[in-house]
Write a structure and sequence with these properties.
Elements: H1 6-14, H2 26-35, E1 45-49, H3 54-67, E2 72-75, E3 87-89, E4 92-93, H4 96-110, H5 117-132, E5 136-140, E6 157-160, H6 168-171, H7 175-182, E7 191-194, H8 201-210, E8 213-216, E9 221-225, E10 233-237, E11 240-245, H9 254-268, H10 277-286, E12 294-298, E13 301-305, H11 311-323, E14 330-334, H12 342-349, E15 355-359, H13 369-379, E16 384-388, H14 391-401, E17 407-411, H15 414-425, E18 431-436
Parallel strand pairs: 1-5, 1-6, 2-5, 6-7, 7-8, 13-17, 14-15, 14-17, 15-16
Antiparallel strand pairs: 2-3, 3-4, 9-10, 10-11, 12-13, 12-18
Helix pairs in contact: 2-4, 2-5, 3-9, 3-10, 4-5, 7-8, 11-12, 12-13
Length: 440
């Protein structure tokens, strides 16, 4: 074996390919054939794409299908604290030895083919899944869809959660271009679901061109939230109607939209996956996902961790914060990557944030703290801004400034939330019991 530890493998992978991102399936498909992955994965397979809501949708699939008694394999990205979070079987993260073995098999199979970090990891996850015989596989697309390594696999049902503007350097400048890329996960003669209430024409055209059976929210399925019923809701689709469903245990009203898309996909798989009402209810009640409006007490101060990292995510976070106002101030800790809509994100949250703590990230793509400071000055004039050496220092500063009734919200990227989580885990600032597992 090339390396004995997962950390060594991951460090090596960082520099294996000359580019951190290179979309395209030619190289990764060549290695997949060498691995024997050109044959179908254990069926059924669900592939999830979308600008936001992918992680929540995968978590909903996992929770509901697990409640129904199925052993679910799930592949997601990125991770917050441990690479192992990306590869799960039956709710358990793959251990270091399993991942090292899978990496070794990919390394042997690739020959002199260079792979990106994500491509290598995707192949390793798929190879691992073929060896553990799950009942169902749920795959989250990393970026886009058409040229993403996950798209090696032909899904039995494809779900696009929603389409916003992100990764424009790779996917295109507008929703029409991005929608076409997301629709690349559709397959001829197989069902597809789109949870976006206003899907781009390009996505509709792509589904028609490939011959996928596309199911649209508002046309083929839908949902209604019951007023005064503790978030209970109803869902219709596939010729049935379900009343009195429990609210998804994930914060934000947009989670109903994510859940509605998941229920439609499950309905389309009903001849292969029997999911009864009791499993639906349990799965909705128990679903959890770290770093999505995850609330903790940090030395007695409420602290919300949310990986909102693009304009649409920031807008959703702002709405959820407004729906759940604090009696005091909201202190924001943030660090954002330079290729994001920084001005739009800051502007979206300016109405709910009273003070900003900007931490520098030791990541090549990170925006300089001065860029965020200048954006705050323009889009949130008059609010205090503190520049900090890193997110952990920003957390210490925000905690010191917090008064009774205040809350802290951490957002901007997975790197930002992960850095704060590591600080809490290392005892930099004490986090006590979790208030709720409410995620976005």
């Amino acid at each position: 074996m090339r390396f004995d530890t997962l950390d060594a493998w991951l460090a090596w992978l960082e520099d294996l390919h000359p580019r951190s991102i290179e979309l395209g399936l030619e190289r990764v498909r060549r290695v997949a054939v060498s691995l024997g992955l050109d044959a179908a994965l254990p069926s059924p397979v669900v592939t999830v794409a979308g600008t936001n809501g992918k992680g929540s949708s995968v978590a909903l699939f996992e929770s509901i299908l697990t409640a129904a008694g199925y052993r679910v394999a799930a592949y997601t990205s990125p991770h917050l604290l441990r690479y192992n979070e990306r590869v799960r079987i039956g709710g358990r993260e793959a251990d270091d030895a399993e991942l090292c073995q899978a990496f070794e098999r990919v390394d042997r199979a690739r020959g002199d083919t260079s792979l990106t970090y994500f491509e290598f990891g995707t192949l390793a996850a798929l190879d691992h899944f073929t060896r553990v015989d799950p009942d169902v596989v749920v795959l989250e697309v990393g970026m886009g869809g058409r040229l993403d390594a996950v798209n090696l696999v032909d899904p039995d049902v494809a779900l696009v959660t929603g389409i916003g503007i992100d990764h424009v350097d790779w996917l295109g400048p507008d929703r029409e271009a991005i929608g076409a890329e997301k629709a690349g996960i559709f397959r001829r003669g197989r069902p597809a679901v789109c949870g976006d209430p206003d899907p781009p024409r390009s996505l509709l055209a792509a589904a028609a061109a490939v011959g996928a059976g596309l199911h649209l929210t508002g046309r083929d399925f839908g949902y209604e939230v019951e007023e005064g019923a503790a978030g209970a809701w109803s869902w219709r689709g596939g010729g049935i109607r379900l009343e009195g469903l429990p609210a998804p245990a994930l914060a934000g009203r947009f989670q109903y939209r994510n859940a509605a898309g998941v229920l439609m996909a499950l309905r389309l798989l009903e001849d292969r996956l029997d999911v009864g009402r009791a499993a639906l209810d349990m799965g909705l009640r128990k679903v959890s996902l770290a770093g999505r409006f995850q609330s903790l007490l940090v030395d007695g101060v409420p602290c919300i961790l949310d990986v909102a990292h693009n304009l649409e995510g920031a807008q959703a976070l702002a709405r959820t914060l407004a729906e759940r106002p604090a009696s005091g101030r909201t202190l924001a800790i943030t660090a954002i990557l330079g290729d994001k809509d920084i001005d739009g994100m800051i502007s979206s949250l300016s109405g709910v944030v009273d003070a900003w703590y900007v931490g520098a990230l030791a990541v090549e793509r990170a925006a300089p703290v001065e860029r965020l400071r200048d954006g705050i000055a323009v889009h949130a004039p008059g609010t205090a801004v503190s520049l900090c050496v890193d997110p952990a220092a920003a957390l210490r500063s925000a905690r010191s400034a917090a008064q009774p009734g205040d809350r802290i919200v951490v957002f901007g990227s997975f790197y930002t939330v992960g850095a704060v989580m590591r600080a809490l885990g290392n005892g930099v600032i004490g986090a006590s019991s979790e208030l709720e597992s409410a995620q976005s």
